[in-house]
């Protein structure tokens, strides 16, 4: 969007300031830059093919990053490595009513306190706070 704005401003300024020294100097710099840019691709066929392969490789890498991150996330969720299962006992529960930011909506906040035994036979006490199905706060202590 920014480059479109700059291009449009340049095009409009071309007609107004064509004969000024500063604009002519800017035109010379722009023409030299475009000649340099075109010369990169016209050196020979081998250079052009190398640029084309490099651009294609960069595009493939950039487009594959989201898929790699999604696959990692799915793998961790399907095969939880380093996590263990435990049966917890609910010790206490609270239900508090909360208002939304403008007071128009009301929802319940649930606080559960439960204990479970870890693999090292330590007993852990955990307190979780939920609003509906979303976890707000979680704290664990020995």
List keywords for this structure.
alpha+beta, 4-stranded antiparallel beta sheet, 28% strand, single chain, 50% helix
Describe the structure.
This protein is an alpha+beta fold. The protein is 50% helix and 28% strand. The chain has 3 helices and 4 strands, in the order αααββββ. A 4-stranded antiparallel sheet has the order 1-2-3-4, with no helix packed on it.
Topology:
Layout: H1 2-16, H2 21-42, H3 45-78, E1 89-99, E2 106-117, E3 123-131, E4 134-141
Antiparallel strand pairs: 1-2, 2-3, 3-4
How are strands sequenced across the largest beta sheet?
1-2-3-4
Task: Give the averaged pLDDT, no decimals.
Answer: 78
Biggest β-sheet: count, sense, barrel?
A: 4 strands, antiparallel
Inertia-based shape: elongated
Helices and strands, in order, run as HHHEEEE
What gap, in angstroms, lies between the N and C termini? 55 Å
What oligomeric state best describes the polypeptide chains here?
A: single chain
Low-confidence parts: none
Taken as a percent bin, the fraction of beta residues is 25-35%
- Count structural domains: 2
Discrete helix count: 3
Structural class: alpha+beta
Number of strands: 4
Q: What percent of residues adopt helix (DSSP H or I)?
A: 40-55%
Radius of gyration: 31 Å
